[in-house]
Amino acid sequence: MGDKEKKMGKRKSVTIFGYPLSIFFIVVNEFCERFSYYGMRAVLVLYFKYFLKWDDDFSTTIYHTFVALCYLTPILGAIIADSWLGKFKTIVYLSIVYAVGQVIMAVSAIHDITDGNKDGTPDNMTLHVALSMVGLLLIALGTGGIKPCVAAFGGDQFNEDQDKQRSTFFSIFYLSINAGSLLSTVITPILRAQKCGIHTQQQCYPLAFGVPAALMVVALVIFIVGSGMYNKTAPTGNIMVKVFKCISFAIKNRYRNRSSKIPKREHWMDWAEEKYDKLLIAQVKMVLKVLFLYIPLPMFWALFDQQGSRWTLQATTMDGNFGSMVIQPDQMQTVNPILILIMVPVVDFIIYPLISKCKLNFTPLRRMTVGMFLAALAFVAAALVQLQIDASLPDFPSSTEQQAKFINMVDRPIDITAGNYTFQLEAFQSNKDYYTYDRPFELKIDTGSPVLISLPDGTRNTLVILEEAGQIRNIKFGDVVAKPEEGANAIRFFNGFGMVLNITVGEEGFGNIISKNMSTYVDVPQGTAEFLIKNAAGNQCVFSREFGFGSSYTFIIPPTFTLEENCGQHIKEVEDIKANSIHMAWQIPQYFLMTSGEVVFSVTGLEFSYSQAPSNMKSVLQAGWLLTVAVGNIIVLIVAEAATLPDQWAEYVLFAALLVLVCIIFAIMAYFYTYIDPAKIEGKFANLEPEDEKKKKNLEVTKKDMVENHNEKRRKSSNSSSDEEETSQTNF
């Protein structure tokens, strides 16, 4: 920090209605920054899965690694601001890093930058992964680094006699955080769902990341514009560093004197008295007492932050049609900020007063215990929803099984024996379900000779039965073996017509489908799709169909097909995979339980930490609180990688059980916790006579000199070992 800024101190800033004009720039900066962060994070796990092609577990792992880093870096930001650059410069410099990271993320999502094949699949996926990781690392450093600075910098804009205005500012500041979060989690999924690209039209992740990047640049510019109005305080030394040094000295001093005859002290932190004053030691004791209670808390965040990973992935297998609007899977995250805005006043002004009237001693720690239990119930609800989803999913073949379905393209009913299955198919019809085999099987059609059918393991197949020149034959086609991604619908056509047909849907094409052949699959989004069917002569018709989420169909164009106005009535459909039948609305109860837990746990936890922290160590406990969020995300990484449970519902139950166990441990710890008044404890030690402290320090210096002189004489007079010298020193 320069001399000019050090001399500046508090300056008289322009005010409006008694509020410094400078806070306008800080509030708008926070709104834009939170929009940038939560908007990018809302689509992040889907970007990993659908663009980078990572599986669910690895996508979840990287997502929570990123979130953990975002909550580890605030400690670094606080140290830089308080010990070196000051809050203003720290915010500016790390915001630049932040904005660069967001821009790199947007560039990494441009699939055409390495698309040599023009098929939508990047040639060099390594480049995209590398850019993504660099971008996320810079974002984590930026957003975490400025997190402990912005709110505190806003508080610095007020004078000592503006406590009421300062309190209102923090309320507005918190509102701007939630407003930015809510808007971004609505808007960026919509941007992601758009189609963009040079060679191929794909999900528009560059736009979904680009808009948050632009908002971060706007946040930086707005913050810098207000520079001339800010009160900028010089760094005065980081209290966290001082706390760490005090704790470190106490541990080292206790270890040095572990075998001495010096009387044991009441608390292990008292071993720091040789170097640090009793007031600091008493404050550190208070901080450590609260930090000890923090030990079980990460488990809550391990469940809470899975709203953006596991719960979002769960929503991709559900029906998002709400009638008047269609909800994207990543937009379900907006339920959380919406419920927060509703429930915070309800809990503060209705629930807590009612509990108080019932004369129940609902202490902060008891509230936090209830919040943890509600979060566990949220995961039980998620597990129940997952069980319903799993029951609606198709029975896909294992790695040692094969599945087959049959389509009759003969203009009469035929009898089929396929292995152990015997059935009859009407003309231009298919059997409803797939038959599962674990070895090659014999296929017999009517009275013909059996034919041995061998299918690849782990595949689904459609066998089309044709009759040509009086001879029955079959053609094999491979089917999709998983739910279509992102709620799309995998559609294909079989051309049983006597000429080549060209079929398109929107800007996507099935190509020219020759007679008695199957087209490739095309992903068709939810809603009404119009298929344009044309022949070589230019005749055409339109076939319309309404689709849900995540289905797969084979449409059969029979020999009786004609290119007329109502051509769709001739087309037969075969449902290979049913659409998602479990509605996204079933996620609302788990979001309600989780948000209820958050309101009771998080808000109360911050209030409790503030009330139990020494006056000059509020930031230390704030850093400790953020650290519990980071550790919670690390727990997700460990469980996701180590548990290897076959079913997702079982993982939800595991997390719920772990949180209930931790909840019980926390309740026991809370039972034995004694609430304190930091002001009284600080006042007790602050009244120590300075002269007495000076005498104490002089006595310690004299004692140290005497010990050194004694040891020097011992070294000159004997050749004893270093261990003996240490023993002599201790005895002395």
Automatic annotation (TrEMBL):
Coiled coil: none annotated. Residues 722-732 have a biased composition (Acidic residues). One of its GO terms (biological process) is protein transport. It is a multi-pass membrane protein. PANTHER family: OLIGOPEPTIDE TRANSPORTER-RELATED. Pfam families: PTR2. Residues 696-711 have a biased composition (Basic and acidic residues). It comes from Poecilia formosa (Amazon molly). This is Solute carrier family 15 member 1. InterPro entries: MFS_trans_sf, POT_fam, PTR2_symporter_CS. The chain crosses the membrane at residues 12-29, 64-85, 91-113, 125-146, 172-192, 204-225, 286-304, 338-356, 368-389, 620-640, 652-674. Electrogenic proton-coupled amino-acid transporter that transports oligopeptides of 2 to 4 amino acids with a preference for dipeptides. Transports neutral and monovalently charged peptides with a proton to peptide stoichiometry of 1:1 or 2:1. Primarily responsible for the absorption of dietary di- and tripeptides from the small intestinal lumen. Mediates transepithelial transport of muramyl and N-formylated bacterial dipeptides contributing to recognition of pathogenic bacteria by the mucosal immune system.
